[in-house]
Amino acid sequence: MISVIFSQAVRAAVTNWRAGVTFEQMLDSLSRPRELGKELVLTIEDELKKRDCSRAKVQDFAWTQPYLKLEDIFQPSDLPDTPTDFCPVPNVEGTVLARVTAIACLATINSATVSYGSENEGELFVNLVVFPPGRGKFTDKSADKMSGHTDGVSFPVRGQHNPMNNRIAPSPDFVCLSALRNPKQVPTTVMPLDQLMGQLSTEHIEQLQKPQYIIGSQLTFRDGITKILGEELIVDDAQLLFSINQNWWIRFSHSVTQPAEIEQHLAQEAMDSLKNACINSAIELPLQPGDIALVNNRIALHGRSEPGNEYGGQTRWLLRTYGLDASDIAPEKWHKDSAFMLYP
Ligand SMILES: O=C(O)CCC(=O)C(=O)O
Ligand SMILES: [Fe+2]
């Protein structure tokens, strides 16, 4: 119910705001997501009150749920054919509204809309689409299913630091997916951490908290990280599970996480049971055009079913951005001269 009220309030506020600006002004506002968010939140607060709700209630809800599915929160109008690369996002009414709405949702739940300079040149929004043949691993991944993972997995969780490089910013708190097209209803999947925990033994939970795992960087970050840091980012004494202020948080990826030593059988066993738990806990979210999903990147893993290799035309098209509580992020963890780009 809170999700429905939140969707209606954001949609009303953004529609109202849109009526008072030109297309160019709307586009321009995307380069200053912080200011845009602040401005929109004022109206969203009013719209929430009209519906007997409050921003505090929405915030509490959002930060304790593995995901929010905000249905029909924007109108995906005037879309061209589905792009075939992460960038650029075509500048038409529907994609600009999708982006403004994403920024509005994240701002309401106290999250800055952010990117990482090392992924897709630091673009704040990217297309998640199927790529045509010829792009190697990127093509394969774009058409394939994704097993449970957190995004930005080689970056520390918020509040912790990479011991080798203090500038490295935390991974995002939220992954924000705006659906523009999804004709085959290919679901995004969410695996709530509390459900995963319920399937793990005390011993495995202990193992997952030990700094005995190697975490590599996800494909989309690899080249950018090497360009910015001068080398790959591989964390070799990582824990996967964290007890933070009485809550469990996770960082994990099926594809780039492994025990540091081959003979650490218990570490491997614990990771295997985490993977097994994922199979039993996936909630399917087939997003419809105009929906936004906010997936909590601390208390859930996410993935997706297989989109298949058809590309362009009317095929699946999501936009992705990230949300982070940036109130305590040190200045050196941002790229200089950017209003939203985190390091690396
Ligand atoms: O395509 C989706 O639904 C999710 C994609 C995703 O999780 C990712 O690209 O990291
Ligand atoms: Fe992801």
Write up what this structure looks like.
- This protein is of the alpha+beta class.
- The chain has helices at residues 2-19, 23-29, 33-50, 55-64, 93-108, 137-143, 193-197, 202-208, 219-229, 265-281, and strands at residues 67-70, 112-116, 126-128, 146-149, 174-181, 188-192, 213-215, 235-238, 241-244, 247-250, 257-259, 283-285, 292-296, 300-304, 317-324, 341-342.
- The chain has one domain: 4-Layer Sandwich (Double-stranded beta-helix), CATH 3.60.130.10.
- 34% of the residues lie in helices and 20% in strands.
- A hairpin with a 2-residue loop joins strand 9 (241-244) and strand 10 (247-250).
- The protein is globular, with a radius of gyration of 19 Å.
- The two termini are 38 Å apart.
- Bound molecules: 2-oxoglutaric acid and fe (ii) ion.
Structural class per helix/strand content?
alpha+beta
Would you report the number of β strands? Answer: 16
Q: Helix and strand string, N-terminal first?
A: HHHHEHEEHEEEHHEHEEEEHEEEEE
Helix content: 25-40%
Ends distance: 38 Å
The name of the CATH superfamily reads Clavaminate synthase-like
CATH class category name: Alpha Beta
For the sheet with most strands, the description reads: 7 strands, mixed
Overall mean pLDDT stands at 98
Name the ligand types.
Answer: 2-oxoglutaric acid, fe (ii) ion
What does the radius of gyration come to?
19 Å
Low-confidence stretches: none
What is the molecular shape?
globular
Strand content: 15-25%
Assembly type of the chains comes to single chain
Annotated CATH architecture: 4-Layer Sandwich
